[in-house]
Amino acid sequence: MATAKSKLSSNRGVVGASGCGEIRQKDDYYTTGNGAIEKLEDVYSLPKKVWECACGNGALSEQLKANGHTVYSTELYKRGYGTQGVDFLKQKKMPDGYDCICTNPPFSKAVEFINHSLSLVSKRKGVVCMLLKLAFLETKSRYDNLFYDNPPTYVFVFVTRLKCYKNDNRDYNSSMMPFAWFVWDNSVKSDAPQVWWI
Fold this sequence. Notes:
By secondary structure, the chain is of the alpha/beta class.
């Protein structure tokens, strides 16, 4: 079972959001820089088996493996990693033995990815972790279509900017944008998200 580490128990807060106005890559393909998983697991323990459902070039999958996880990696497009040609939004069930989805989803489909993930994982112990821009907290449409009924359990905000690489181009990174891990943990009963800094 995933558990938040003890120092989170009494910490709640409110965060602001900002972003930049750049044009996104065609398929929202931004690979994840090093340290994303390590920073998350400094404060939160992911389940042992994780489905990375938009694995891209395997950046997050490899970080998860380095942290001792068994990872099922799938990807819609041909990125040269994992099982390719898998449309996550059309999947009907979790892989056998898995109850955690952890990914950096295409931002334009993030609400769909989250809602679909929540429909797939166990209502009792499932975990969904999404790496998103902090600005994802904004907008009435996200509130109406996601947060009103399914607020995250935790929001883990990076205190230093995490690098994400547009189209996996290491000469171009979006470190101007603030990121956070949004975590839905069905084993934790909470009326409001807990916010922590990582």
